[in-house]
Backbone:
């Protein structure tokens, strides 16, 4: 949301119904390894969340979609689909989103906060520590005026861990 990595003409805050932001994707490359996975965000079924929607000029849409697809789909852990979102100015538009693929080996279903914290603590991949990813996500969400309260509680659990 904070580093879209593609040219766009407009960025708006948007609400997506039917999905919520969750640490539900096991990361085997960027924030962990296959032996010691970390966790990254995914849009998972249920609830709703606020995020960002980007408008791309029509002539650029195919190239941008190809770029995003290549970036997000290397492991096949998401299902790309168009979903209805409500923009902060009242417009309703279709947005392209990547939804967590239930049944994929890297999808983590129904885990406890303690298990999530353990995965975040252990995760370290090519892009660095998973803990840093979570902390930066919270900072960026707050900078955009979006809620990160559940993620803050998770980070407190990660940071409050006392090794035995």
Residues:
């Amino acid at each position: 949301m904070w580093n879209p990595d593609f040219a766009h003409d407009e960025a708006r805050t948007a609400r997506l119904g039917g999905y919520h932001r969750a640490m539900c994707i096991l990361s085997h490359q960027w924030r962990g390894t296959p032996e010691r996975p970390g966790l990254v965000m995914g849009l998972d079924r249920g609830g709703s969340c606020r995020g960002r929607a980007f408008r791309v000029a029509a002539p650029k849409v195919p190239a941008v979609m190809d770029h995003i697809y290549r970036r997000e789909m290397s492991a096949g852990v998401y299902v790309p689909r168009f979903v209805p979102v409500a923009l902060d100015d009242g417009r309703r538009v279709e947005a392209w989103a990547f939804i967590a693929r239930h049944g994929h080996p890297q999808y983590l279903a129904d885990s406890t906060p303690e298990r999530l914290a353990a995965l975040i603590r252990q995760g370290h991949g090519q892009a660095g520590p998973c803990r840093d990813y979570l902390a930066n996500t919270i900072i960026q969400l707050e900078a955009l005026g979006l809620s990160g309260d559940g993620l803050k509680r998770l980070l407190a659990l990660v940071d409050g861990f006392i090794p035995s």
Summary: The first strand starts at residue 10 and ends at 27. The radius of gyration is 16 Å. Residues 121 and 131 are 6 Å apart (CA to CA). Helices lie at 61-72, 113-122, 130-143, 149-159.
